[in-house]
Amino acid sequence: MSSPQPRSRILGTGSYAPARVVHNTDLEKIVDTSDSWISERTGIRRRHIAAEGELTSDLAAAAGRSALDAAGLSAADLDMIIVGTISGDTPMPSCAVYVQQKLGAQEIPAFDISAACAGFVYGLTIADQFIANGVARHVLVIGVELLSRILNWKDRTTCVLFGDGAGAVVLGPASGDGRGIISTRIFSDGTLANSLVIPGGGTAEPLTPEGIEQSRNKVHMVGQDIFKVAVKNLSSASLIALDTAGMAAGDLDWVVAHQANLRIISQVAARLSLPLERFVLNIEEYGNTSSASIPIALDEAVRDGRIKSGQNVLFCALGAGISWGASVIRM
Ligand code: ACO
User: Fold this and answer.
1) What class does CATH assign to 8-176?
2) For the segment 15-58, what is each residue's pLDDT rounded down to a tens digit?
């Protein structure tokens, strides 16, 4: 089966991680955990944590600048900015408008996507549509999180898992040589909304001093519920995206999966009958950076030469919502 012609392609990638690195052994000093528990259960050894005063939009703008440089473009060339994040600078306005301001972009649409760890794949899917229908030529898609400020640092079941960072791509029109986004599919299932949630601080539960005391404004997660559905849905979405692309898993050169847990990635690899060596892995260094994890891993693998022009790459991500998706790209 032949693949559909891509309508958009990745022109450049970029990423940014805060300088401060927190090791598992540092966390042993603040919660009842151990380096061995964290690394054996998740694959995480370190994570980068933003400095005081560093904002989500600072991380995002740094990644965005780097992607623009790689694409040989400037902010003036952009027609749209899409930011996947659930940890923006302020509840209102969007993180994207702060990024627009920091990049000095024109009066173009700039908006956020709230799909947690799937935010980047959602953003990519939306950008592809705008380029396909000719409304936009160059779209900056960023995945960024500053989760360290919305974690409960007394809850060992969540605080050891996450890190801060940003990754970005610039999408532009495909040039007819087969390179670009071949298929991209997104999904949500609201029945699991409460398995991964920040319960307080919205209109359902406005914040009170008691709510803050109980960390209702921080991330709450039923880890095992998410684990099971992650393995199942990442695998099924990947197979659907591959099928839409007219490909099989064996046609892939690389998989850049959301870096939430090495055990989840290993089980997805088994379900796709692919060796783990085919996966770009950096969870050891960054932990789970939610929507930033795929574009950071992609950028690293492009820059160090693992991912090469013309290779077939699969992205797959799942997070709060639950929301998930997968994309097949020829680089
Ligand atoms: N250190 C030491 N012990 C711990 C820790 C810790 N940091 N955290 C939990 N434990 C304990 C538990 O209390 C439990 O103890 P018990 O047996 O005495 O009750 C034991 O370890 C086992 O806990 P489980 O929750 O069963 O551990 P599991 O193997 O499921 O691993 C984890 C937990 C890592 C959270 C896993 O379930 C997971 O990765 N889930 C998916 C996370 C994910 O993908 N999230 C989605 C994206 S995030 C987003 O959208 C923002």
Assistant:
1) alpha beta
2) 999 999 999 999 999 999 999 999 999 999 999 999 999 999 99
- DSSP percent split of the chain into helix, strand, coil, nearest 5: 40, 25, 35
Strand residue runs (E) in the chain = 8-16, 21-23, 46-48, 80-84, 110-113, 139-145, 165-173, 180-188, 196-197, 220-221, 254-257, 312-319, 323-330
pLDDT digits (tens, 9 = 90+) for 132-150: 999 999 999 999 999 999 9
Catalytic residues: 117, 258, 288
Give 220 Cα–ligand 1 centroid separation in angstroms: 12
Q: Which of 145, 224, 265, 289 to mutate to test the pocket of ligand 1 (most atoms within 8 A of CB)?
A: 224
**Per-residue pLDDT reduced to its tens digit, 167-221:** 999 999 999 999 999 999 999 999 999 999 999 999 999 999 999 999 999 999 9
Task: Name the residue ranges covered by the structural domains of the chain.
Answer: 8-176, 181-330
Identify the residues whose C-beta falls under 6 Å from ligand 1. 33, 37-38, 41-42, 116-117, 156-157, 160, 196, 223-224, 226-227, 230, 260-261, 264, 288, 290, 319-320
Task: Determine the pLDDT at residue 3.
Answer: 83
Asked if 288 and 282 touch (Cβ cutoff 8 Å), the reply is no
How many Cβ atoms from other residues are within 10 Å of residue 19's Cβ?
9
- Tell me which architecture the domain covering 181-330 has in CATH: 3-Layer(aba) Sandwich (3.40)
Q: What is the pLDDT of residues 233-260, one digit of tens each?
A: 999 999 999 999 999 999 999 999 999 9
Q: Which of 45, 146, 227, 233 to mutate to test the pocket of ligand 1 (most atoms within 8 A of CB)?
A: 227
User: Which atom of ligand 1 lies nearest, measured to the CA of 321?
Assistant: 50
pTM, entire model: 0.97
